[in-house]
Amino acid sequence: MARRKNELPPALKSPLETKSQDRARAANLASVAEGKLKLYDPQADNVRKFLDLLEQKINRPLALSFAACVHCGLCAESCHYALARPEDPTMTPAYKADQIRSIFKRHKDWTGRIIPWWVQARSPRNDEDLNLLKNIVFGACSACRRCTLNCPMGVDTAALVRFARGLLTELGIVPEGIFNVNRDQWETGNQMAVTEEEYLETIAWVRDELEAETGIRGIEVPVDRTDCDFIYVINPREIKFDPRSLGDAAKIFYFAGEKWTLPSWGWDMTNFGLFSGDDRLGAYIAENVYQAAARLRSGRIVISECGHGYRSTRWEGYNWAGRDQTLLTESVIMTLIRYLQQGRIRVDPARNPEPVTFHDSCNISRSGDLVEEPRWVLRRVCADFREMEPHGRENFCCTGGSGLLSTPEYRPLRLEAAKIKAEQLRATGAKLVCTMCHNCVDGLGDVIKHYKLNLKVVQILELVARALTNKHVQS
Amino acid sequence: MSSSLRLLENEVQIIALLFMVIVYVFRVLWIARFKPTRERTLAAGGERQGIAYSLLNISMPWSMEALRKKPGFYIQFVIFHIGVAAAIAASFIIPYRPEVFRIKAVVLLFQVIMGAAFLVGLMRLRRRLANPAVRLISTPDDYFSLILVIVYFAAAMLAVPNRHAAAEWPLILFFGLTAFFLVYVPFSKISHYLYYPFARYVLGKTLGHRGVFPLKEAKEETALGPPKK
Fold first, then answer.
1. A56 shares a domain with A96
2. Which candidate among A215, A226, A334, B172 keeps its CA 20 to 30 Å from the CA of A430?
3. Domain range spanning residue A134?
4. What's A384's domain CATH number?
């Protein structure tokens, strides 16, 4: 049956699931008891709370993005959801932003307060309306900021989406997957609930594997060493699913003669505060990292390959935590560049002969500062590097950003929107797609599987480690 | 010239203009009431360059992929806004420098500009009605504002010859609409030009600080390596 005009896709009609919230309430988790992790209360006046929160949390940049939209619709040209579903006007970024903008207008804008229908200003009526808003802001936008850079007025739709997410998270009106990760980060300090024992065991395993691979006895993956050049903070995925990535980094650091350490606490640089819009969670997780660096008297913080982790730790975290940045905080890509420039590691691009293309993470290229840098490294470690089009600041999202990988209810829509990414990947003719983001690894993996592309996802550390020709540690 | 037209061209316009200025001052104060944000990170780029780039972004259609894909949209934008500027200029020239519109070439130039803007306005209205995505996000204010500007262009075209001895109604229509505009604009989407510099300033400052603005080509790599951070 044909879909009715202007009707939201089925994935955006998901009801609010609260099983995990009910379990958290029953278990009386510390984060719940301390009021950090918010649970949904069907008896509460959630609309009133939502409006109060909007009043409290709005700031000037957001107000300007609310007020400045002229409804030109140009944003539809840059959004992968809108491009993949040209027949569906509800995928237009301005429409998605209007779901929260209309509430702002109703309560903050002069015209919207006096004659709301004239500017389509309205208030949510009940929790159903808030749930609909949840589905749109969590399920139909990866907050990639492509529309922001393509808006003639400078409207930051991604920031509006995150703002709406933050208000809903305060009410417990969140997708279950996002709630679960928020809970784990509040409760354990990392998003995959990795225990300290599991963390240390995996590190020991990585060290043993490295010894076996290189034949070098005494190779180290240090933990909590003080006065190092840097602490290395990672994505829990590197402990739970992909320790190879940590092994590659340790191998490179070893040959570069680096004095580095992992912290035993504050090692997770990923941050679901960015995705859920919860600035308090964002501040807590980022602060863990900054405090670890201070505790270990580290010279700098080096962030492993992760898009949102880099953005959260390098950029947003200091602002969320209300802490002025004093310590250098850099991506591991900058560390690699230093090693290559100083001759501390030697590489042979012939060891990576397959055609490689590079996928820019949205959080690094459009909300961060690294575009040329990963390419600088790749051109030195790969024999056949080729760009995808568009690339750099204009690259399309892997489609798994902004927490969408944790929300299976929105997966069909996400994979449909991934058509744009799939076509972009296919056109490169590459065999490997490299990215400097663990989230993109999974996002691209999904796209490749769904669209049956003959591609493998790799990361920069992996390619550099493979290209290494060092036999001795550089002083 | 009748006394009512003289009143409409002068005192009424001044009062309406004053009203608009006062409301705009309140608008700016309204924006200032929202709490500002503070950047606490070490910069990777220049805030000033970011702000300059952001504010000039609209004069660089090549910098936005959406406009590169739709150059016609940009041309329409330019014509439409030049038309607005010409119509506003006409509302000052007619009462205060009427001799300018005694030069036929100037009148013709204004009429061509506003005629083109009028056609673009109709095209924009058609797009707003025909494109499902734009129609869905359009409010009554969006339609009304656009129709108002289209009618204003038509009125300005008829008014610029400034032949009040022959017929006053084109001038009465034009100045009546101008006065209405001045009063209505601060409450409508047309006030976007007031927000524009603020919104672009804020975005430019943030993205300039992070080294995102000015946008760079990914291929920019010097023999000395990537840019220093």
1. yes
2. A334
3. 10-174
4. 3.40.50
Inspect the interface and report whether the beta carbons of A82 and B133 lie closer than 8 Å.
yes
A133 contacts A43 by C-beta, under 8 angstroms: no
Q: Does B29 touch chain A (CB under 8 A)?
A: no
Whether A4 has a pLDDT exceeding 80, the answer reads: no
Read off the pLDDT of residues A143-185 as tens digits, 9 standing for 90 and up: 999 999 999 999 999 999 999 999 999 999 999 999 999 999 9
Is B52 touching A (CB cutoff 8 A)? Answer: no
Answer yes or no: do A435 and A456 share one domain.
Answer: yes
Is there a contact between B67 and A74 if contact means CB atoms under 8 Å apart? yes
In tens, the pLDDT along A367-420 reads 999 999 999 999 999 999 999 999 999 999 999 999 999 999 999 999 999 999
Residue of B45, B66, B192 with shortest CB distance to A70:
B192
Query: Which of A174, A201, A218 lies at the terminal end of a domain, its last residue?
Result: A174
Indicate yes or no: CB of A65 within 8 angstroms of CB of B199.
yes
CB contact under 8 Å between A153 and B196, yes or no, is: yes
Complex ipTM > 0.95: no
pLDDT of B71 > 80? The answer is yes
Which pairs count as long-range contacts for B167-174, CB under 8 Å and 24+ apart, including other chains? B168/B1, B168/B2, B168/B5, B171/B5, B171/B8, B171/B9, B171/B94, B172/B4, B172/B5, B172/B8, B174/B90, B174/B91, B174/B94
Would A201 be classed as within a structural domain? yes
- Residue A365 sits in the same domain as residue A271: no
How many Å lie between the alpha carbon of B9 and the closest alpha carbon of chain A?
28
A1 pLDDT more than 50: no
* Alpha-carbon gap, residue A168 to A174, rounded angstroms: 6
Strands (E) located in A64-186: none
Regarding whether A80 and A57 lie in a shared domain, the answer is yes
Q: Which of A341, A366, A397 is the last residue of a domain?
A: A341
Residue A2 reports pLDDT greater than 50: no
Whole-number mean pLDDT of chain A?
95
Nearest CA in chain B to A114: B187
Contact B136 A92 (CB under 8 A): yes
